[in-house]
Design goal:
- By secondary structure, the protein is mostly beta strands.
- The protein is 8% helix and 35% strand.
- The protein contains one helix and six strands, in the order E-E-E-E-H-E-E.
- The strands form two sheets. Strands 2-1-6-5 form a four-stranded antiparallel beta sheet. Strands 3-4 form a two-stranded parallel sheet.
- The mean pLDDT is 89.
Length: 71
């Protein structure tokens, strides 16, 4: 998923249900992750920040997560 917050630069990551943060992963349990769940390309919504501020997030692109192979 590639997204932009309030006109900042484009960022990307994979939504993850993992309990621990990791590079390139967006935790669904975070405010950012919870906001991104179910969003579509070019959708724009308010994003509540940890400090209480509200910014705008826009999804620039959505692609399937890379296949990790057999578990």
């Amino acid at each position: 998923m590639t997204y932009m917050i309030s006109g900042g630069g484009a960022r990307s990551g994979v939504l993850s249900m993992s309990p621990a943060p990791a590079p390139g992963r967006i935790l669904i349990a975070s405010l950012l992750g919870a906001t991104l769940v179910g969003m579509r390309k070019m959708q724009k919504v308010p994003l509540l920040r940890d400090d209480g501020q509200i910014e705008t997030i826009v999804v620039l692109d959505v692609s399937p997560a890379p296949d990790r192979g057999p578990a």
